[in-house]
Design goal:
Keywords: Carbohydrate metabolism, Cobalt, Isomerase, Manganese, Metal-binding, Zinc. The radius of gyration is 16 Å and the shape is globular. It starts with a strand and ends with a helix. Helix content is about 35%, strand content about 20%. It is an alpha/beta fold and about 220 residues long. The structure holds D-xylitol-5-phosphate and zinc ion. The site of D-xylitol-5-phosphate (DX5) has 21 residues, from strand 2, strand 8 and helix 7.
């Protein structure tokens, strides 16, 4: 189905060669580049910040889907807008000002995404659900690539899809973590339409063919 979007996660790419890794992604049929920002506090791992995203922007025209795993992400809204982020997705668990932060993201001209961890109930999304362009349901605990998919999160995907349809809203539903050719179809069946994949895609030498295996699994 054409509304499905594949978002290769640059977290699994070669950090010393972002320009060529972005070119590799451009050669696939993927629509998004998923960019994980980690601060060593909200999650133990540290990745990189807005300056690196601004440099990446020069090498890619794809949609930059920026996933912030940082404490108080509202501090960085302007920085990521200026860096060229298209979608900025922030965790309900990362700020006591989630509503205001999402408003700020939209006011800065980006699409606003909200994300919940595996341990956070769907109810946390309800107060902001009318504001967002994308809801991300984590299917692993955030912080690292290469973890096993948590199937219990699929019930939350279905609950969010139901909530969206009941309210007549039209945001995208994204899944992130452990997505591969074995797990992607169940995510789509539950209601997801944007699929982040890191280690599964980048372990292959032929990236376009590996992206195609995800599309084939969706069509199966
Ligand atoms: C995890 C990140 C993911 C990560 C997914 O905290 O949010 O985007 O790159 O990696 P895989 O696909 O390997 O689980
Ligand atoms: Zn992510």
């Amino acid at each position: 189905m054409s509304t499905y979007k594949i978002a290769p996660s640059i977290l699994a790419a070669d950090y010393a060669n972002f320009a060529s890794e972005l070119r590799r992604i451009e050669e696939t049929s993927a629509e998004y580049v998923h960019i994980d920002i980690m601060d060593g506090q909200f999650v133990p791992n540290i990745s990189f910040g807005a300056d690196v995203v601004a440099s990446m922007r020069k090498h890619s025209k794809l949609v930059f889907d920026v996933h912030l795993m940082v404490v108080n992400p509202e501090r960085y809204v302007d920085a990521y807008a200026q860096a060229g982020a298209d979608i900025m997705t922030i965790h309900t668990e990362s700020t006591i000002h989630i509503h205001g932060a999402l408003q700020k993201i939209k006011a800065a001209g980006m699409k606003a995404g909200v994300v919940i961890n595996p341990g956070t109930p769907v109810e946390a999304l309800v107060p902001v659900i009318d504001l967002v362009d994308q809801v991300l349901i984590m299917t692993v605990n955030p912080g690292f690539g290469g973890q096993a998919f948590i199937p219990e999160c699929l019930d939350k995907v279905a609950a969010v899809a139901k909530l969206r349809d009941e309210k007549g809203l039209s945001f995208d539903i994204e899944v992130d973590g452990g997505v591969d050719n074995q797990t992607i179809k169940a995510c789509a069946d539950a209601g997801a339409n944007v699929f982040v994949a890191g280690s599964y895609l980048f372990r292959a030498s032929d990236l376009p063919a590996q992206v195609q295996t995800l599309r084939d699994a969706l069509d199966a």
